[in-house]
Amino acid sequence: MNLEKHNSLRIKRLFLLIILIISSLSIFVSCSDSSSSSSVNLTNKYFQVGKSYFETMQEAIDSIPSSKALGAAETVTMIKDAKGAGAYIDKNIILDMGPYTYTVSDYPYSSQQNAVIVVSENVSEAIIRSKDCEKSFVVPSDNDRIKSVLRICAPVTLENIRIDFGKNNENVSLTVDNVISLVGPKAKVIVQGSSTITGKDRMTVLDMSEGAQLRIQDEGTKFSGNMVLEDASYFIVTSGNVEMNKTTISDAFTFSFSGRASVKSNDVNTIKAVRAHGGDGGIHCSSASIHDFSIVRIITPATATTKGKIIKICSICGQEEPKDTTLCNDGDHSWRLKTSRTDCLEEFVGPGECIKCGASIDATTFTSLDEHKWNDYEVTTPSTCTEEGEEKRTCSVCLQFTTRTVEPLGHDWEQNETRHDCTDDHDAVEFICKRCSTTETQYLTATDHEFDFENGDTWYDPEPTCTEAGKLWVTCTNCLVSSYTNVPALGHEFDWSTSATDVEPTCTTTGSNFTTCTRCGTELTYTDIPALGHNFDWKNGEVFTSPSTCMAKGYKLTTCTHTGCNETSVTTLDLDPDAHNFVWNNPGNLFTSPSTCTVKGYVMTTCTNGCKTARTSELNLDANNHAYRDTWSSDTEKHWHDCAYDASHARDS
After folding, report:
1. C-alpha–C-alpha distance, residues 275 and 594, integer Å
2. Measuring CA to CA, which residue among 89, 85, 75 is closest to residue 105?
């Protein structure tokens, strides 16, 4: 019975395994199909900006709009090792070279400058960076036309950059034969991260204008090689400042200064190292607080009765104290030790100097101190991912030191390949240590797919048309599995702004337009053009008018303005109560009341239109129209007849 159960369990497991294999094959087919449909042909493509790929560095730079500010600018990213000419940067960009190497195999892009990378003075800021790269730029030794790896006319930040100029096999950042040209007061190169500056032949900064800067600002930056600020075969700066803080300088490095060139630092050890390698005339403490005026030069010796005169000199940078100091009288000195003690906790006999006046004594006894004055621990043996390191601290007063062990750092893993399937609960993926590059296989647990159809790299297979649906595919952002969503048919798209007229409309009949689909070009459709309707222009058109009278209405008549149409329109006018017709030359239509010698008469007529409206016209006086009485009037002298209208009018017969 137990054997039968065991066999049954084995059969079930085998059945589940077969289902799993079939499912995996389906996913593999889906991935293969999607890969063939979605893959971007990266042959001869070495640079990426957003979702676009370019063959040359210059093409990638030119694709970014000049109006981009640095904060908003897209990054030019190298996606694999590349060869080619240099590039001209005339806008704010970030050139991210990643872990790849750019080999200068052709003549430089900007032949006048003879430089691999030229940064225009129009740039307000640019960043050139790499990551875990053995050699960022390689200029082969047989390419003797290159005079400068970088020609900088604006602020530039270099992060972890390595340049090999073909003179040696070391990892270098700014190296040999006129590596940098700083032109104009805005020019600035900031070297940060773990960059190094080295060169076995020569290292040159050319044309460094006053105000231009070469700033070494990270503790990991190192100088090695020969550095002289005068001769063409050395490191040259004709004006401006080189700033170095906490910088390691190799024994082969040499400094000299000319013109306004100088090196400034706030780090005592850096200043001393520069002075020890020929930079005595050009190295200065960057602030007064770090000067150590412990070197005394006697101008006038002291006697038992008179004080002497001395000048104090900074032991770090060699600058003289701006004021003179007098020597103490013998017996008034306060001595301090001029050399290091063997042990702070023991009494010590050694040379001293007076803290008041700087006078020296060959030997005197100094009492023991209560404790050591320890400096910070410094790494002597760096820890690795798997091995312990060591740190050492020294007493700033004596020669004693102590050490301590530093624990291994442990691996810093990051995923080194895209997982195969998010839903696989035992997906084997390679991880790599970012620190030591050790690899190991780790098994990831199942998660949900993330299909970003909105922002991901999508493709159609098949593409939708006007009449048929399509499928939009995208690959999961976390694995290699692809999925699709259905896309409905697009439908026809008609652009009536480009249509043609088939039948012209008239005033009373419709016309028609036709156009084709802008997407597929095969579909033809028509649309009606409405009838125009008559256009009677009563204001500016030709109008015939029959005016109204007091008894009859008039009218206006005009014709349609559309070509070929003779349709007319009539508008009736209102009666005009003031439009009478009075005729004064028709005696049969007149009534007259004649004038006399004293009263004006009148003539009256009526409107001939039939409205019976009357109008009168006043007559002038008639001086001859009298009414003489029949009776005589007399006085003592004569007789006369009086006028009935006016007695002053008389006649004598």
Report:
1. 143
2. 85
